[in-house]
Amino acid sequence: MFVEAISAVSIQGCAASISPLSNLPNRNALSSSSSFPHGLNSLSGGSSSSSSSASTFSGIALAKRRDNGFATGASNETTTLPLTGLVFQPFEEVKKDDLIVPVASDVSLARHLFLDDCEAAINEQINVEYCVSYVYHSLYAYFDRDNVALKGLAKFFKESSLEEREHAEKLMEYQNKRGGRVKLNSLEMPPVEFDHPEKGDALYAMELALSLEKLTNEKLLKLHSIADSNNDPQLADFVESEFLEEQVASIRKISEYVAQLRRVGKGHGVWHFDQMLLN
To answer: What's the DSSP call for residue 6?
Structure first.
């Protein structure tokens, strides 16, 4: 149910008004000409001309009863306001230089917010992973000799070599994903002999592996810091999620192997340690 009320006050510069329903005139008051200001007749009809009524009714507001006891009034005047406050205007923002799709055939289409320093650091880390893999592969070849014949250590270093190679390939894939260019640098030739007069070959090789794992960890942290300094959270997240936790676990495992080999010495205990790695 609605109670219609006509406001005699001209509404200017305002699209809506809110007033308590108790302030509205009743229906009987509206039917009386005394309820209107000078120059207005009642709604039931009057002696004023239609043109006069039309000009007078320019500020009329229709109030309707609401459940909360208030009435709202809306002016019949139309206000056209420009649409403002847009949060996202994609067709304007894609005109920025760093979002323009390149047309040259030798330029990556996927590269975005990937700086040269990060690209160079990834290539350096690829070289580190390959170098460590190269040393582990040489250790595998040493322990697989017929006059050394420590098959467990040979298996361990072969798997370690493959793991480091997989790390290098993972970095290469990420480099291509970001639109960088993979550059494979030369590798230093690893040692061929690993026997040590005091420590023996097994302990010496495992301590060398521990030092290489710590070096790799330092290089990974350096790559992470370069990503941070160049405001590249995606590269930083990649290093954290794919490498750092695994690197800590590798350092811990090889540290335990070094401790065990120091206990068993160079004699018969090395063979038992080798059998543990083999099985």
So the answer is: B
